[in-house]
Amino acid sequence: MSDSIIIIPTYNEIENIERMIRKVFSYKKEFHLLIVDDNSPDGTAQKVIDLQKEYPTQLHLLQRPEKNGLGTAYKAGFDWCLDKDYEYLFEMDADFSHNPDDLIRLYEACSKKDIHMAIGSRYCKGGKVKNWPIMRVLMSYFASIYVRMILWIGIKDTTAGFKCYSKEALQKVNYHNIPFKGYAFQICMKYGVLQHKLAYKEVPITFIDRQEGTSKMSSGIFKEALFGVWKMKKMKL
Fold first, then answer.
1. Higher confidence at residue 212 or residue 117?
2. What range(s) does the Glycosyltransferase 2-like domain occupy (predicted)?
3. Nearest-5° Cα angle at 221, 215 to 226
4. What is this structure's pTM?
5. Backbone dihedral region of 210: left (phi > 0), alpha (psi from -120 to 50 degrees) or beta?
């Protein structure tokens, strides 16, 4: 039984999912995987089912009836993993924008004494972004500054989606009270960890834009984060 599980929400990731699964299971450190699929019409879930025959104890699948947002996928994933008593729960994208080679570094950071959240950070010292248009880089960078100014937090990469949480952190943060479905969920989770005065560490990563598949970013997701930050100020998690 591994102490660590990676939650990967998917919607139409058939181009990436098998390669990602095999990559994660190639490491000396044993990780388990939970794929949370939102009824992808491209056959993503079926590919996972096929691979479960090869990885019966490591690979898990949670199928949902419809596409319902990143935040709700992670809530369902957290519930499933906490019920199985994993010590460390990771969030990671399927499209290789998050390099799975960095999983070990996040694990090592989060498993140290008194650290409860390790953030794969593009904007701390040593962090980088590759293959993004300059306007998107600037938008993301200044979005993090905007969040820090409103919430008064010191996290450099407030919208980061590559993270490791301790079991204790997720048991303390009332994530079911988070109303957001997009990147605002990622911001709010970090804010919740800080509300409980739990320590975090930012681990520098190189973020590489996806090579296969289609981005899930939309104007609605952006607006939710832009205005949602003000709602977070009043939330107790």
1. 117
2. 6-172
3. 130
4. 0.94
5. beta
Is residue 35 classed exposed, middle or buried when 0-12, 13-18 and 19+ CB atoms within 10 A define those classes?
Answer: buried
Domain ranges (residues) in the chain: 4-232
E strands, the chain, where? Answer: 4-10, 32-37, 59-63, 88-91, 115-121, 128-130, 163-166, 199-204, 206-208
Q: Please give the Cα distance from 128 to 115 (Å, whole number).
A: 23
Q: At which residue do the structure tokens 């832009």 appear?
A: 226
* Candidate CATH numbers 3.30.70.890, 2.40.50.140, 3.90.550.10, 1.10.10.10; the one for domain 4-232: 3.90.550.10
How far from 199 is each of 46, 117, 173, 193, CA to CA, in Å?
A: 39, 7, 13, 8
Rounded Cα distance between 52 and 177, Å, is 33
Q: How far apart are CA 51 and CA 18, in angstroms?
A: 8
217, pLDDT greater than 60: no
Contact in structure between 33 and 8 (CB atoms under 8 Å): yes
Q: What is the pLDDT of residue 94?
A: 96
pLDDT for residue 218:
56
Convert the pLDDT of each residue in 77-129 to its tens digit: 999 999 999 999 999 999 999 999 999 999 999 999 899 999 999 999 999 99
3-state secondary structure of 125: coil
CA distance 56 to 100: 21
pLDDT confidence of residue 215 = 56
d(CA 230, CA 228): 5
pLDDT at 139: 85
pLDDT one-digit tens code per residue, 59-78: 999 999 999 999 999 999 99
